[in-house]
Amino acid sequence: MAVRREVLGAEHVDRANAGKDEFTTDFQDLITQYAWGTIWTRPGLPRTMRSAITLTALIAHGHLEEFAMHVRAALRNGLDRDEIKEIVLQSAIYCGVPSANSAFKVAQGVFREIDAAA
């Protein structure tokens, strides 16, 4: 849970936990245990690399809501906006231009929200 909070932010994790019910509790527990407790804590890759891989996978599969969340996480993990731009550009070649186009729009919106809150 500590890594999940560090990467996604306490506000997001608190919101996810507040939304748990009898139907979703097992899924939230699975995510916390395996994604955040097993994969994100492995020593083999730095968090910046894990973020880059995650962003690319989300672009490839069209999971744009999750992509927005992980753009914020990537910034928290130490990637900057230029690096995120390069990840999306690289993804345009391997995941498709329409997918990258959508990802650019989502990232741009995330950056605007962050700038407006600052």
UniProtKB/TrEMBL annotation:
UniProt entry keywords in alphabetical sequence: Lyase
EC number(s) reported in the record: 4.1.1.44
Pfam families for this protein: CMD
Domain Carboxymuconolactone decarboxylase-like residue range list: 26-108
Presence of the UniProt keyword Lyase in the record: yes
KW tRNA-binding (keyword) present: no
Record GO terms (molecular function): 4-carboxymuconolactone decarboxylase activity; peroxiredoxin activity
Enzyme class: lyase
PANTHER family for the chain: 4-CARBOXYMUCONOLACTONE DECARBOXYLASE FAMILY PROTEIN, CARBOXYMUCONOLACTONE DECARBOXYLASE-LIKE DOMAIN-CONTAINING PROTEIN
Protein name: 4-carboxymuconolactone decarboxylase
Taxonomic source organism: Arthrobacter yangruifuii
